[in-house]
Write a structure and sequence with these properties.
By secondary structure, this protein is mainly alpha-helical. Helix content is 64%, strand content 5%. The protein has helices at residues 15-37, 43-72, 76-79, 87-105, 112-133, 150-154, 160-163, 171-189, 199-215, 230-253, 255-269, and strands spanning 4-8, 11-14, 223-225, 228-229. The chain has a two-stranded antiparallel sheet. Strands 3-4 form a two-stranded antiparallel sheet. Strand 1 and strand 2 (11-14) form a beta hairpin. Helix 1 (15-37) packs antiparallel against helix 5, helix 5 (112-133) packs parallel to helix 9 (199-215) and helix 8 (171-189) packs antiparallel against helix 9 (199-215). The longest helix is centred in the N-terminal third of the chain and has 30 residues, at 43-72.
């Protein structure tokens, strides 16, 4: 484990914070590059990006503060600054923050297609901080399992596999590989996805929800109900809602399906009418 990445003068630069900051910077740069290519860089878009970053950072902290409060007896709001961060909480907070900020500034265009690739890249970078500072995963006999030194194991609480010197799943490397692959996939999908402008982000969120649910089984997090972790219990309704969204919009997002629907509607009602089955703009 590498809690301190390097020193600048007499200041220690924490590994986790460094990679989270680097990932946030990369995500922001990609977001504005995507916006510039479409001629959409405006003051309002800058406000939306700032609101998204702020709410995401706050939610990431607050969503884990209660765990530290439970251990220390302090108020969650008094320990949030020195607690951990939840990626899932941060994503949820950022999503809500984007919606609220867009409403406040009256921005009506979709932004999900601008955010999605940057978020994937930022996650791929930020997870290196987790890999270098946190419990790797559950014990494994697979050849790519990793070990931690006795000194590092002493700094990781509630990790019996670490203390026993067992080989463990590099769960964060799995996540890094997933997000890097999604970054490439989203760039490839962006000009090919012919539905509403928020679907690219929803594709990423659904993909990550499914992947994260699976990888939780080798993360080593505490099971709280029916053999599932807190993250998995949170992911169940989120995954269901995203799956229902795509199931509902599958037909209207298909050009052939729309054309067939329009032909049926026109035959029934005449050429002067417009089908009500066409997709409407949905803020993401």
């Amino acid at each position: 484990m590498v809690p301190v990445l390097f020193r600048v003068g007499g200041l220690d630069v924490p590994t986790h914070g460094f990679f989270v900051g680097l990932g946030t910077l990369a995500a922001t740069v990609v977001f504005f590059l995507m916006a510039r290519r479409r001629g959409r860089v405006t003051e309002d878009l800058g406000i939306i990006a700032a609101g998204t970053l702020v709410t995401g950072a706050i939610a990431a902290r607050l969503s884990t503060a209660w765990q530290y409060a439970d251990l220390t007896g302090d108020s969650p709001f008094s320990v949030w600054a020195r607690g951990g961060r939840s990626i899932l909480g941060g994503l949820a907070g950022a999503y809500v923050g984007a919606l609220v900020t867009k409403r406040l500034v009256g921005y009506r265009q979709h932004t999900g297609d601008l955010f999605a690739p940057g978020v994937a890249l930022g996650m791929a970078i930020g997870r290196w901080g987790c890999f270098l500072t946190e419990e790797p995963g559950t014990a494994t006999t697979l050849p790519w399992g990793i070990h931690v030194s006795p000194e590092a194991a002493a700094r990781i609480p509630r990790c019996p596999a670490c203390a026993a010197g067992e080989s463990m799943h590099p769960s964060f490397l799995y996540e890094i590989a997933f997000h890097a692959a999604m970054f490439g996939l989203l760039l490839w999908l962006r000009p090919r996805l012919r539905s509403n402008g928020g679907d690219l982000l929803k594709v990423y969120l659904l993909g990550y929800a499914l992947f994260r649910f699976a990888v939780e089984f080798v993360r080593g997090n505490d099971e709280v109900l029916a053999g599932l972790t807190r993250s998995q219990l949170l992911l169940l309704p989120a995954t269901l809602l995203l799956a229902l969204y795509f199931a509902r919009h599958r037909r209207t997002a298909d050009p052939a399906g729309r054309a067939a629907t329009d032909r049926v509607f026109t035959a029934a009602h005449g050429p002067g009418h417009h089908s009500s089955t066409r997709p409407t703009e949905v803020d993401e």
